Amino acid sequence: MSDLLERLRERGWRLTAQRRVVAEVLDGDHVHLTADEVHARAIARLPEISRATVYNTLGEMVSIGEVVEVATDGRAKRYDPNAHRPHQHLVCSGCGTVRDVHPHGDPLAALPAAERFGFTVSAAEVTYRGLCPDCS
Amino acid sequence: MSDLLERLRERGWRLTAQRRVVAEVLDGDHVHLTADEVHARAIARLPEISRATVYNTLGEMVSIGEVVEVATDGRAKRYDPNAHRPHQHLVCSGCGTVRDVHPHGDPLAALPAAERFGFTVSAAEVTYRGLCPDCS
DNA sequence: TTCTTGACTTAGACGGAGTCCAATGTACGA
DNA sequence: TCGTACATTGGACTCCGTCTAAGTCAAGAA
Ligand SMILES: [Mn+2]
Ligand SMILES: [Mn+2]
Ligand SMILES: [Zn+2]
Ligand SMILES: [Zn+2]
Fold it and tell me: How far apart are CA B60 and CA B58, in angstroms?
């Protein structure tokens, strides 16, 4: 994750304790935390960090493409540090767990030109739903 | 849409002016209105209808499978009367317009067993993103 | 037709998620 | 070390949605 901090610095961004902590908290595989979960974990390391700063920092990381926003339910958005390898999500309808998955083929290829209504289609997001081993 | 009202009655539900108006407002193709948009249009026909009733009625229609909820952005959910024919959505990143699309093949088929992590996968939702003719 | 009653509707309070702001603090180049 | 532009803070605010208590009414019974 210090890659990320280095990239932030290269963009002229100040390295603050808050940004460092948000980057640390978001490290790992299959990590899909809400902003408030990030805040709670950040507070454990830096008690005075504010909710607004967590939102700001997450927003910055999203805008430079280091983190992706994932909306799997009608609830809070989730933040995903796995931004370098394109992937889709498998969500448990029971407990809400989210796993990264890599379907084969390009999902865009399944949409014929006749079904594009003149749009310039640039991306496809797929959410697979089902029950995880614990919930089934 | 009186099909829908008939089905509601068969389930023992009272036919009220409010439910009738919500069903009427939601009729058509490529209709993906937010609850507040439904409310605004319903008010034009029945000025005293409340927001709570619109939410209640939409929720009932969703629970009997006559309407589907669609979350295309991080904003308000949209309500889609096209519940009988399975389909996916194409969303304009500029203006937010939503079109129904029918990709070929089963989107579930693209997810190999090795990528299912022991889940019982039952559905896949695909959101295609791009720019509509007006926005590009 | 009128009556009765439980289901429906209503307004407004409430809650979660996210944004915005003015005041305060601080990273870092000079 | 200093100055200052940028970052952080807490709290107010907005948007979307849910809940509740009180009033209303659809529809079966008589
Ligand atoms: Mn992911
Ligand atoms: Mn649709
Ligand atoms: Zn589960
Ligand atoms: Zn558009």
Answer: 5
